[in-house]
Specification:
Number of strands: 8
EC number: 2.1.2.11
Strand content: 5-15%
Subcellular location: Cytoplasm
Order of helices and strands: HEHEHHEHEHEHHEHEEHH
Pathway: Cofactor biosynthesis; (R)-pantothenate biosynthesis; (R)-pantoate from 3-methyl-2-oxobutanoate: step 1/2
Shape: globular
Number of domains: 2
CATH class of the largest domain: Alpha Beta
Distance between the termini: 72 Å
Radius of gyration: 21 Å
Structural class: alpha/beta
CATH architecture of the largest domain: Alpha-Beta Barrel
Largest sheet: 8 strands, parallel, barrel
CATH topology of the largest domain: TIM Barrel
Helix content: 25-40%
GO cellular component, one term: cytoplasm
Strand order of the largest sheet: 1-2-3-4-5-6-7-8
Subunit structure: Homodecamer; pentamer of dimers.
């Protein structure tokens, strides 16, 4: 009686891939397996290392850094030069995660050459593995040019924060007939070669329809539970951000932990308990 080894099962995207970098092929394969996966933002080497070591497969250096790193009230002010050192730090802090760089407002909308220059800078100067840009059919020439140049592109539809002034605020997008427009944008991004698309603040039923209509993965943020993946800003996820949107679940109380640590440190300095003998050199 003969026996044959069963074929090796593909590694799960979350925590898998055998220690090598996650690639766009891994992302596509997870979609084929109906496997959900997590994505987080990251902006520095230390937090990126933690997320990498627990198995988060994709890290986004978001233009949300404008708010959570630089203290602005929107994503619009952040620049390419602001984001490049953050992206490089995240790449250096990781071994396995795919690192996606957000292209900030004003760095790709004008024309194709500008978009290609910006995306190329991120890959060459930071080591990022892909870029993300907001918009649908209006930015298809930029997406096509990047893909043709060998730059993986993640799309972003729905509430696109760089267009917040056009939307009149942070509002749910894609209701009614607008859902047909979003669907058309998603299909156009897929046809242009995008390897995935973020759906932000759209009705769950619409996100589910888009997800089932595309061969590329969808990544939800405020888009219900039927997308292929989910993404959150890490400070929101960890409870460090004072005010968050309805779609955010706080998985920890980092604000409370950090306050308590700072108070304990300050009190021990004031009362002379720190530094103790064990923290001093002889």
């Amino acid at each position: 009686m003969s026996s044959s080894a069963s074929p090796a099962q593909p590694a799960a995207l979350y925590g898998g891939t055998g220690g090598r970098r996650v690639t766009v092929r891994d992302i596509a394969a997870a979609k084929q397996r109906n496997e959900k996966w997590p994505m987080l933002t990251a902006y520095d080497a230390l937090t990126a290392r933690v997320f990498d070591e627990v198995g988060i497969p994709v890290l986004l250096v978001g233009d949300s850094a404008a708010m959570v790193v630089y203290g602005h009230d929107s994503t619009i002010p952040v620049t390419v030069d602001d984001l490049i050192p953050l992206t490089a730090a995240v790449v250096r802090g990781t071994e396995r995660a795919m690192v996606v760089a957000d292209l900030p407002f004003g760095s790709y909308q004008t024309d194709v050459p500008e978009a290609l220059r910006t995306a190329t800078r991120f890959l060459k100067e930071t080591g990022a593995h892909a870029v993300k840009l907001e918009g649908g059919r209006r930015i298809i020439p930029q997406v096509e040019a990047m893909v043709a140049a060998g730059i993986p592109v993640m799309g972003h539809l729905g509430l696109t924060p760089q267009s917040v002034n056009v939307f009149g605020g942070y509002r749910v997008q894609g209701r009614g007939q607008d859902g047909d427009e979003l669907m058309a944008d998603a299909k156009a991004l897929e046809a242009a070669g995008a390897f995935s698309v973020v759906l932000e603040c759209v009705p769950g039923d619409l996100a589910a329809r888009v997800t089932s209509s595309l061969a590329i993965p969808t990544i939800g943020i405020g888009a219900g539970d039927r997308t292929d993946a989910q993404v959150l800003v890490w400070q929101d996820m960890a409870g460090l951000t004072p005010r968050t949107a309805k779609f955010v679940k706080k998985f920890a109380d980092m604000d409370g932990l950090l306050r308590e640590a700072a108070r304990s440190y300050a009190e021990e300095v004031v009362n002379g308990a720190f530094p103790g003998p064990e923290h001093s050199y002889k």
